[in-house]
């Protein structure tokens, strides 16, 4: 109080420095004053202490200035360097460990580079531009005369002694005014023309490190240019970076810059390259969706967005653009689809797409059977299921109003498939990019890319070719022809591409050299062209040749399958798809097609259709690796399978072990450096090699935790716990994952388990306390939103964000969708075609109590077929697993489907007996599911239906 | 400042302080390593180069090299990442290039100037900048000379005042615009406030201005791009940021200026990983971390229809005071974002960590 009153009482006169009335040095005045300059002066007076020392008033003045102008210079104070006390312990630790990590890396690097002292130095110096040949001329002399004149007008530079008398304050206050003025004295000389920046960087003689260094810097330059809106420049620098080391991130950035430049074609290419390298890259999918939507390729855009949403259900941008695109599509449809029905269908489609993320496959199946009754969701369902681009063709015809129930029609209706053949040409005119995707689509839709590119990429590890660089084993002429062919293929000139490829093939065969890999690729590429042209028989021929050279390579197999399918040789097609699935079970398109063909064959041949099939070739284990390890696959010399089989197996194992170790170590190092994303990738690769090694899973879980990918982290932990049920790390990390997913109850449980195993884990204790608190908070807040659960989530979330509870559910939805894709070595669920298949899967599911997998199974199984598939195998345990997975995974997002399953379950044999034998607890589970369903809304059942079903279940 | 906002800002941590027994004029990170060099003048009037390695929280002296003349400045800018030869300028006007592993005899040596070499810069090495490796030196004798290490004895370009004109002390030089093999500029700052931009491609003076006070340090935000920004610091505590993209026929480059402190800004260094962030070091022992923000439109048409640049704004990200004596040299690690070394006249070299640079 004293501070306040003293200046006020003294209130007469002015301050010495700025002649401010003393009365201004007052709280009330300062509070009301809006003149920052004046306040700054007051502050200076106060700070100087010439009118006395008033710390609180000074503080008040500072606050006032801060609130008026937070960037005011007067607020700047001298500060000491930050110390440990300015950070939390974690941050401090992070700072230090990051530095230490870097130091170790540098030290190692140093040792290496000393060994690597290369002879390339001279070589590189030869590449240098010549010495400037100016013989030290005096470049400024001409100008200097002019300058002399100007000098005389210029203010005379200060003498050194003058600096002492210099008043900085005064000088600085002039800054704002004189900035421009000083410039006006600047003189102008010639302007250079547009910058010509080299698109490629010469990296001869550089070590890997140097290349990384340079690639990173070029990327940074690109990012900076991007930030300032110089998109062209950004693209240039990204291209340079790629020319040194191509990485997905840079392609991704480049794609964005190209989007900004509206260079859709290149943007599309780049997105697809990203997706080639990192399937499921969210950003790339988003960007490709944008491109597609601008190319008016709305279905493909929707598909991409749905893919995004299946991984990140929360992604509001994806949701928004999805809505927008669907709006556009709606606006477009009535024109392109003359039938009056079209509009209605589309509306339903939209709803379905939004409510049914991730359950698509199932809807599709329903569709095929009950096709006539529910014309709702084919496109949506497909899109949600990670639509295989195979379907593109059909979708297109859908768009043109040919048919909306594409698959069913196609195989039942010969006329339809006739039209199908003619379709590619028409489409090529319309949407080039989509067209390209189509043939290639057999590699999951999200990897859909221009075939030629994909071809090169996925094979690239083994035999890098045309578009790649030096490592190709093709003779240059052939390589050139091939790359020309690829270019032509890309631009849709398939006929010409065929010619190029043929030339290349002739050339290679003419040489007589044995490079089956490349020849096989050439054949395979030509097959792709034929397929595009609708020349199925030639396509098959080429695929055969390619397969002779390279048994069990994916592309030709898939192409042959597609060709066979369109020639209605379903049996052969089926065989090929099945073979493909043996090699890589994660190819969704093959899965779907195989299922589709199964249907057709059953229709055609009746229940004994299997007997009419030719034998399915057994794929050697060596070939049964995933595409990612394609290098090992293609680099091995093709030989008679039976002989080399064991050899290959052995080789493969050793290689795999070695690779596994290396990858794991790399992963660990990356974790230390804080590069969690890359580390997770490494671990994922490890898993492909050796899915049994659980430490990799716990490690990857850690990475996911750091990346806030809780769902994935949880899955990894689950997996570990299946193998080893007392793995403390897995429990701890799963607990953290649950915490991140806001599933606090589960989190608490897991922490308790951790403490049970080892009560001394302090972190767990701490976390437990925290989570318990959160749990209380949550349970009090979460009640209200409970009812929202079963509704069509996406739409509502856009408009009215609900409680945490719902978000949790949304996150959980991603689970069943991701299971088959992310961890294919886990229980793989493919659509069961008969009771035996189904029984096998159910047994496997039942043994592990893997509800997620079970939910998967149920999602892809048609409810109607349940009684048939279950035959007389229904048991209490199985029923319970079904109920639980329906409750946890299915009911939340598709109550209709859950109801259907419940309904058809009750029609199964032995159902009555099993229900009668359910224990009280088990009945409660069933009860819960019913409660959940009655809370949810669906047009597939009414409350009466539910009530009557309840009775059937004896509740 | 609220605490929360304060935490989100970059912090400058003084990681290591190393007292020296001599005056340090320049310090430099050795590229692709955790080592740094201190260049200076020993009490008995000789030159010293000390090589330190960062080991956790201390600096370990690896090597000390004594030379007859005090060393004012050094650069790695014109050497390859593999060789890492150091180019230095000394009090006697000599330009030397050293192989630090065999420092007895210079790899290259020339008596370049009659007086002290105040400033040195290199380009074309370290993968930074297209074209030939070149070194530029600026001296008290008023000349700015460009050297190619492959050519002995004579500079490849020499920029000096014409006969009869008073010589100005050149305090600072910098390369820029080296985005392809032909283009390259040298910017020089003089004690009278002159800033001159020499175009090495056309061998002409492209632009000049005067900022009224002695120019202590100039630097382009990046050397190897179409020149984008230039920062020039001055004796009385102001610095100017010029947008170098758009040159107006009469008005030249647009600029914005800012006052950092009440004393000389000795040096400005841009963060190698982000060109829009830079640090200035001041006479009062303080460091300021700044960020340049671009305007919505970087250029506009004036009344006569010629393009003119529009300057952006500068915001202070952080400031710290480390010493009572001027901090005369500053260098960011090219390899580790946020790692930085500075040498002050209190005969101390400090390794600093600047945090949260990613979040800006």
Automatic annotation (TrEMBL), chain A:
> Where is this gene product found?
Cytoplasm
Per the record, which residues fall in region Disordered?
Answer: 132-156, 349-478, 799-825
Q: Bias regions of kind Basic residues — which residues? A: 146-155
Q: Which Gene3D superfamilies match?
A: Tetratricopeptide repeat domain
Return the Basic and acidic residues bias intervals: 356-371, 402-462, 804-815
Tell me yes or no: is Nucleus among this UniProt entry's keywords: no
**Keywords carried by this UniProt record:** Cytoplasm, Repeat, TPR repeat
Which intervals carry biased composition (Low complexity)?
375-389
Annotated InterPro entries: CiliaryAsmbly_MitoImport (IPR051982), RPAP3-like_C (IPR025986), TPR-like_helical_dom_sf (IPR011990), TPR_rpt (IPR019734)
Any single Pfam family the record assigns to this protein: RPAP3_C
Cellular component, GO annotation: cilium; cytosol; nucleoplasm; protein folding chaperone complex
- Positions of the RNA-polymerase II-associated protein 3-like C-terminal domain: 831-923
Quote the biased-composition stretches of kind Polar residues, using this chain's numbering: 133-145
User: Which parts are the TPR repeats?
Assistant: 248-281, 282-315, 660-693, 728-761
Q: Which PROSITE patterns match?
A: TPR (PS50005)
What is this protein's name? Sperm associated antigen 1
TrEMBL record, chain B:
Q: Which Gene3D superfamilies does this one have?
A: YVTN repeat-like/Quinoprotein amine dehydrogenase
Where in the cell does this protein reside? Dynein axonemal particle
- InterPro entries (alphabetical): WD40/YVTN_repeat-like_dom_sf, WD40_PAC1, WD40_repeat_dom_sf, WD40_rpt
SUPFAM superfamilies according to UniProt: WD40 repeat-like (SSF50978)
Q: Where are this protein's WD repeats?
A: 135-157
GO BP terms, alphabetized: apoptotic process
GO annotations of cellular component type:
dynein axonemal particle; RPAP3/R2TP/prefoldin-like complex
Its domain of life reads Eukaryota
Q: Record's SMART domains?
A: WD40
Keyword terms, alphabetized: Apoptosis, Cytoplasm, Repeat, WD repeat
- Give the main localization category: other
Instruction: Tell me the function of this protein.
Output: Key assembly factor specifically required for the stability of axonemal dynein heavy chains in cytoplasm.
What is the protein's given name?
A: Dynein axonemal assembly factor 10
Starting at the broadest rank, the lineage of the source organism is: Eukaryota, Metazoa, Chordata, Craniata, Vertebrata
This chain is encoded by the gene named: DNAAF10
